[in-house]
Amino acid sequence: MVVKNLSIFAFLLASATVLSQSYAPPAGETGSTAIAADSELFINWATGVEIERGYINIDDPTAEDQGSSYASYGEASNAIGVATNSAVSLGDAGEAILTFENPIANAGGYDFAVFENSFSNTFLELAFVEVSSDGVNYFRFPSHSETQSQTQVGGFGDIDASYINNLAGKYEGLFGTPFDLDEVADNSLLDKNNITHVKIIDVVGSINPDYASYDAQGNIINDPFPTPFYSSGFDLDGIGVIHEQELNVDLIEKHYISVYPNPTSGFIKVKSRGGVDKVEIYSTSGKLVKKYVNLYEAERLDISSLPKGMYLVKINSEEKNSLFKIIKK
Questions:
Q1: Which residues form the Secretion system C-terminal sorting domain (predicted)?
Q2: Beta strands in the chain (DSSP E)
Q3: CA 40 to CA 28: how far, in whole Å?
């Protein structure tokens, strides 16, 4: 009788496991929601980014790789523009805030997609996604992880994408995880038709409650841990915009930091509610071509002498570094 009951229990457990695969499967499989980076659905990409790196191993802050206890792989600029599989690593619980030339709008279906650089459809490093229409108040997509949380997924362990919902990193490199703004709870502090900032927060995949990350239903999110390398944590490759609004004066005023006009033929202005300490302009090869200090609010910065092309604008404001892409025409 005991053996029979155990057999029934095992069958029910296995059945529950199968039934728990509630969400879209990996890229390339029938029913997947993955969107390729070269899809014509994308009409724009993130143009600005702030990065706050996390430890390579939050469980051991003294651990180092490549001379640092913090993730150090990639440059912040890797998160700007079209996803290319060249990413920036956030580290354990690291964060990135991305801004856009035009705010993201809430329209029918998915509104934007987040790209990670996973080398397979099972090695998935996950991240929370939050949105803001003022750069101050952020609201999180309601995530869900059905991955078991009894046994730790190892540093190079596997996850089934069909167990994951509303977490960035669900798909392999060059395939974006899409997000629909309708799924974020309504709030008077959020204008879903004018999303100016998207925050990406690395999920600490540890099942140790001291460090664990939890989904919207209170489940521990189990993903590869530890990853004590300079490429630790979520590897952000870009955010593709599917629906956007035209930027107007009222929306510019809402931006925490803005650079305009863009494209430009001769000058730019940098505006920040917190003031600007320093502005540096780099070529795409990383060469410093212009530098400005002690700026006045919205002061005109002359770049007429620069050749036509794309440049990266690094802004130091309130002890934070922000990076924007501009086009000199």
A1: 259-327
A2: 35-36, 44-45, 48-52, 88-89, 95-104, 112-116, 127-132, 139-140, 144-145, 164-165, 175-179, 195-202, 235-241, 257-260, 267-272, 278-283, 288-293, 300-302, 309-317, 320-328
A3: 17
Question: Is pTM, for the whole model, over 0.85?
Answer: no
- Cβ burial 211-220 (10 Å sphere, 16+ → b, else e): bbbebeeebb
Q: What share of the chain in percent tops pLDDT 90? A: 67
Q: Rounded to whole angstroms, how far apart are CA atoms 70 and 89?
A: 10
**Among candidates 189, 179, 231, 237, which has minimal Cα distance to 24?**
179
> Residue 237: pLDDT above 80?
yes
How far is C-alpha 53 from the chain's CA centre?
Answer: 13
The CA radius of gyration of the chain, in Å to the nearest whole number, is 21
Mean of pLDDT values over 182-194? 95
Instruction: Identify whether the C-beta of residue 248 lies closer than 8 Å to the C-beta of residue 101.
Output: no
233 within 8 A of 172, measured Cβ to Cβ: no
What's the pLDDT band for 209 if we cut at 50, 70, 90? very high
Question: DSSP secondary-structure letter at 294?
Answer: S
71 C-beta neighbours (distance < 10 Å), count: 28
Tokens 């029979």: give the residue: 4
Percent pLDDT > 70 in the chain is 86
